[in-house]
Amino acid sequence: MSLDATLERKLLWSHDEGYERARRAAVWNGRKPDRRPAGIVLAEDAADVAAAVRLAEERGLRVSVRAGGHSYSAAGVREGALLVDVSRLRDIGIDTRTRTAVVGPGVHGGDLDRALEPHGLFFPTGHCPTVAVGGFLLGGGLGWNWRSYGPGCVLVQAVDVVTADGRLVRADASHNRDLYWAARGAGPGFFGVVTAFHLRVQPRPAVIKATLHAYPLAVRGELLHWLHGIRHEIAPVTDQACYVTQEANHSPDAPTALSLAIVFADSERAADEALAPFADCPVGAEAIWRRDGVAVQNVRDLPNDLYPEGHRYAQDNIMSSSPAAELVPALDGALLSLPTPRSHLNLMNLAGTPELPDMAFSLLGETLIELYSVWEDPARDAEMQAWVTGHARRLDPVAMGSQLSGESMASRGFGPEAFFSAAALSRLDVLRGHWDPDGRFVSFLL
Ligand SMILES: Cc1cc2nc3c(=O)[nH]c(=O)nc-3n(C[C@H](O)[C@H](O)[C@H](O)COP(=O)(O)OP(=O)(O)OC[C@H]3O[C@@H](n4cnc5c(N)ncnc54)[C@H](O)[C@@H]3O)c2cc1C
Prior knowledge:
This protein is of the alpha+beta class. The protein has two domains: about 90-205 and about 425-435, Uridine Diphospho-n-acetylenolpyruvylglucosamine Reductase, domain 3 (2-Layer Sandwich); about 205-420, Vanillyl-alcohol Oxidase, Chain A, domain 3 (3-Layer(aba) Sandwich), CATH 3.40.462. It is built from 13 helices and 18 strands. Helix 8 crosses helix 10. Bound molecules: flavin-adenine dinucleotide. Flavin-adenine dinucleotide (FAD) binds near residues 69 and 194. Flavin-adenine dinucleotide binds near residues 76, 141, 142, 143 and 194.
């Protein structure tokens, strides 16, 4: 049987009915790229993925992949490529005895959490429940409880991969070790299609508690210096961030700095101890409102209206390990010019995360600074992108790299160097030459 026939009903060429719907659905962002893949394969299992890769070889097409479609750069949608859509690969198998889970790349983080919860298990999924594990884990993935685990990909113990020659192989610490190394952090630079992730799942924390204090932007200098000063002392079980936005606050005319800490603890007492330092913030008297030590049954249920679907988004980020005296003033330009009420800056504390094992994900600073513009009117696309790109560039003097999960290489005009250690990037290039000698997979969107 021909490959086209094997994939019948799952293959859409660009002239087919349903193609444009599938092309647009491949991207979560309300802002869709103009790029048009030659065809789209709506894969349902690993056999479809293998058939798609062989079809691409037969037709001389390159291959791109999408899982949950959350890439801000829409890296999966590529001009003239065959797009392998793995969003329907959504099986979840949990083995409570070995504390492992085998998870399809299209599984959303929220669905994985929902499946693990009845077994008292946990995985550090992305903060937005619709982010799929596919792109999240390939790019590293800083999810819930990031300061305890570091990137989620450290908990990947094996991957099933369709390689450029259309074979389905297992890669782990003993088989195809270099492919396993690359699958933990190469992101859109990966040279294969992951059809399943084998995850080391964790005991579910007994207590999850959060504290949220809101401050007027006028006190940002004092607040950010204080938070920076205590970044290493904050207990590793605490996810700590400062989120600056005009939305979600009680002063609609001006942005607010939301200081947020979520603790994943073994007991109430440990949770309260971890949250105690935030009550001592010297800027406390200025707080507009505060919530101390609120129990959060499931982090996936935290209000998620900061990223409403259908809106248009531009994102860029830098990681910094600079001292507060350099970092805090450098943020002012962006903090004082947020272009829409929903636009925001997010400063995540990465200090004290565990040392990274040897894998493609190889760069982690002390603070991750994410810049987001969020808008609805397509006429503002260029202006909103320019705000993000311009302010990310202005932060270059305090940057030691960027995080691949939020990559915007094409709009910032740089290559993958900012996302990997030099040694990891050069190993990745060598491995790509070995596993994908004909350049079947599209790699980074530059
Ligand atoms: C609202 C929102 C919230 C987010 N929150 C977080 C967060 O908390 N932490 C974090 O680290 N990141 C976060 N991100 C970034 C997100 O992790 C990345 O964009 C990630 O790539 C999304 O995965 P995806 O499968 O949904 O996206 P996709 O766009 O489908 O995938 C991105 C790229 O990954 C590759 N890829 C995906 N699946 C496969 C596969 N099976 N085989 C081979 N290659 C594949 C492709 O190159 C693809 O272009 C968030 C993004 C959004 C939009």
